[in-house]
Amino acid sequence: MTPASARFAYLDSETTELTNRLIALASTGLPKVYRADSDEFAFTRIFTTSGDRVDAVLSGTSLRYSAIVALGVGWLPAERQSALLGGHSLDDFVTQLVERAKASSNLGDIALVAWSAAQAGHRLLPEALRRLQEFDRRTAPEYVVECAWVVSALAEARGQADVEEYLAQARERLLGSVVAGSPVFPHVTGPGLVKTYRDHVACFADQVYPIQALARLHHSGDDPTALAAARTTAEQICRLQGPDGQWWWHYDARTGAVIEGYPVYAVHQHAMGPMALLDLAEAGGGDYAEPIRKGLSWLLGPAELNGAGEPLLLDDEGLTVRKVFRGDPKKIVRGLHTVTTRAHPSLRMPVINRVYRPTSLDRECRPYEFGWLYFAWLASLHAPARSGGSR
Known about the structure:
Blueprint: H1 13-29, E1 34-35, E2 40-50, E3 53-61, H2 63-73, H3 78-84, H4 90-101, H5 107-120, H6 125-135, H7 144-157, H8 164-176, E4 201-203, H9 205-220, H10 224-239, E5 250-252, E6 258-260, E7 264-265, H11 266-282, H12 289-297, E8 313-314, E9 319-320, E10 323-325, H13 332-343, H14 350-355, E11 360-362, E12 364-365, H15 367-378
Antiparallel strand pairs: 1-2, 2-3, 2-12, 4-5, 5-6, 7-10, 8-9, 10-11
């Protein structure tokens, strides 16, 4: 049993029980998504159910997800880490990540590896930071999620390396990406990465990772502007949270309104939403206990399913159902809402929502879901990770 952290104080009895259950589920499932054939984590575990029978297969590999797992597992007691990391110590696992980052051509992956090395106080942190600094184009448009991970990595590295000039640039890029007057972050920092008709569409991840990064930036070195920006976005997503605790998926980067709520992802409910809000609360940015509890409670019986169908949590197999979605062909609802809101921010087609109701389940589970789950509930801005690493 993993000891509860101070973050459990935000929960009531029902959500405390649920969170402990989720952490136990993660400890069952994470070893099953490690690929011994390639000595790294799979991209996903796809499964089918038939009565009590569950069949699951692994697909792909992911440096990004492996780095997120390292960030989460680093908060577990050292004696529990190797069983979740394919038999590796955290120190050796991060060494592998830094080596693999040399061949990566993705800013987000490289930033997450640097963050994991910084959190572990790893001896290869200078190498990881050098790779990040050399690869980051800085002035070119980038995805906001990846820019947020750069800020989080550099904020974590403060005190271990001279990152101040780079961090200042990364901070300005992230804060400067917001459309003037909007309470939410966009999907990209500039034109050219997405098609023009959908460049106003941002997603939940585009909100939670900047909230987290800016909260951590403020905590690492007094930055009230960053904290205020994080709080503005946090208050907006909480204001728009669904009636049953749903964290909605797509937002209008110009106005902050919801464009399309579905899919609702399990990882948003149990990990990513709480993770960002708990980091913000710990940094002095407010109290978000109620929306955190509501988001967790949705997992116990999504209203969308009307009490029918399989549960979202498969404890014995260590699986979570990835999302509840509309099942519409070629994501037609999302596409129509994107086009109509592009023409006018308030223009919607509510009839299409009634035609394609969110009653479908995506039966796959990705390792990063468990990495962020551990991080959300066991991390602390005020204490080092339990890595037992090189620091």
